[in-house]
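Predict structure. Chain length: 376.
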Amino acid sequence: MSAPGGAAPLLPAYGGRSLDMVLPAVAHRLGLPGFADPFDLPETSRYLVMLVDGLGSDLLEEHADLAPFLSRLATREPITCGVPSTTATSLTSLGTGLAPGRHGVTGFTSRIPGTNRRLNSLTWDDRVDPLEWQPHPTMLRRIHDAGVPVTVVNQARFAGSGLTAVSQHGVPFAGIENQWEQLDVCLDALEATDRAVVYTYEPRLDHVGHRQGCRSQEWRDTLVAVDADVRQLHEELPPGTTLVVTADHGMIDLPADDRFDVADHPRLLDDVEVLAGEARLRHLHVRPGAMHDVARRWRDAVGDRALVRTRDDGLEDWFGPLDGSVAERVGDVVVAALGDFGVFATRDFPSEIGMVGFHGSITGPEMRIPLLVATS
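Prediction complete.
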């Protein structure tokens, strides 16, 4: 099915040119056995992996003049993030080297199995143990345990969070308060030993994009600042360091008027026990036996503005093979928005209606992310 606005579906390339393979590729180039590198990274003794939240490949290409340093590095074909194309899922795929169907962070919000509660993967829930939710060892820990020092450099407020635990547990965490500290702490960690991996996170583009939109002047100004900061960081890297810059998803702006709100279509919630996910990709958990009726009602209501899939249709090409403990976190029916459509639910997710920029679905602008590589 083609999508309005040219935003055709793009399937994730798990195990290949996909975000989940970035750290396994680094491990391979460091000489650790059992890993592969589908990206042909340079073989150096130190790696700095930076994730720029919201830096989709399409956006970088469109605004190349505003980001000359990052654009100059964009010599490789884009890679894909996973489904949903959202921060928590992507950070966990990067951090574990696994597809969402295995690591279990299946969306911005997910049903907590056995309950009618939702887990917000960014704010978490004290009743949910992160290491039970995602029990696999992180790639960062596997690299660290193999004898290569690893440091996570991130905002201090993320230390000890549920998302940090599921995606980055098992290695030292260096908390920072601003971009200047980020530069200094990354350099200190890289220079401390002859071999090292440092992971760091840049949040500003995504924050501005959600509030003002990724076509706004504020977003463009932020891209200019991020480009300058990454360029400065690269210039100060110790010799023999490879900088790898990637992202967790792209972003699109949705029109503010005439948004589709399930509150205006109450029959769509018949037989739905839990509504989860986010506006661009909704998980519908339904009462037993109602899956196909719910899917039919939703297909009739949204038409070609979204893809509506059920468990019986198979969801492995979106989430990867679903582990038994993960399957119940994925909706019985999943609604992936196309074009400039979104499924809003103002009663359950009131903050979404005020946003401008969105991501989460399977369209190319949301799924394509850069892999930018430079060696000092």
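Summary: The longest helix spans residues 217-235.
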